[in-house]
Design brief:
By secondary structure, this protein is an all-alpha fold. It contains 5 helices and no strands. The chain has one domain. The protein binds zinc ion (ZN).
Amino acid sequence: MRITRIQIETLVVKIAQTRELEASCDECAQWAAHLAEVLAQSSIQDRQMLAILQHLDECIPCAQEFQVLCACERMDREQNWPSFEEMWKLVCDNE
Ligand SMILES: [Zn+2]
C-alpha cells in the first residue's frame, strides 16, 4: 500500500482535533512500513509518525515487529536480500 500525503494530512488533522498524541497497536502496524521509510530518508516531522515512534518506545511486541520491518526496508533499499534461513533467523531472534 502506498501512503499518500493526503492520508497523512488527514490523520494529522484528526489528531489535532482530539488533542491526543497517542497510537494504538493497530495504527502502529498500519504506519510502521511508512515510518521505516521516513526514518531511512530524513528527520521526522509528522505528528502521527512521532506518535508511532512513541508507541514503539512503549510497546515491546510492536517494537520487535518494527525492528524486523526496518531490516527489511534496509535490505530492500540495498537490494541485498538474505537467504530464507537468514531471514527466518532474524524473525526467530526477536521471539
Ligand atoms: Zn503496540
